[in-house]
Amino acid sequence: MLKKLSIAVAIAALSISAQAQTATPFYVGADVGSTTIDSLSGDKTSYGAFAGYKFNQNFAAEVGYRHLFKVNVGPVSADVTQASISALGIIPVSKEFQVFGRLGYNNNKVSTSVAGYNISANESGALYGVGVQYQFTANVGARLEFQKPASDTKNYSVGVTYAF
């Protein structure tokens, strides 16, 4: 009886340690990139953060917030941010390398300041994108991505992810 109990305790201990070595489906990340607007010349620096849940190896859901760009033209200053929710379809190419597609909904907020007056406007719509991710470890990955947050806007970014 004691021998069977010892074996059961050993198996339970091994399964707990095996579970501790794998990442959970929750992850967070941050990125930096470049935003291009059709009506503006030059690329603008962007940065953002996101959090997600990976349901399985082929599907995840993410929420994100990104500062798309800030521009000053004479006395006019415009600041554009993006809040989004997306579904990701994931194709594992290897254990470490994944290709993903993004389809979601986003709200782009434009805050403008002209001679001390502040004006803001929102535009909501579809968000789509494609990207690749490389997992260095079960917890840490790197990502390259292209997003289209509006019909006249493109964003390219590089970021890191951390699963906990």
UniProtKB/TrEMBL annotation:
Superkingdom in the source lineage: Bacteria
Pfam families in alphabetical order: OMP_b-brl (PF13505)
Primary location: membrane
Signal peptide: 1-20
SUPFAM superfamilies noted in UniProt: OMPA-like
Keyword Signal belongs to the record: yes
Location in the cell: Cell outer membrane
Outer membrane protein beta-barrel domain residues: 7-164
CC per GO annotation: cell outer membrane
TM segment ranges: none
Keyword Signal among record annotations: yes
Keyword tags: Signal
Protein name per Swiss-Prot or TrEMBL: Outer membrane beta-barrel protein
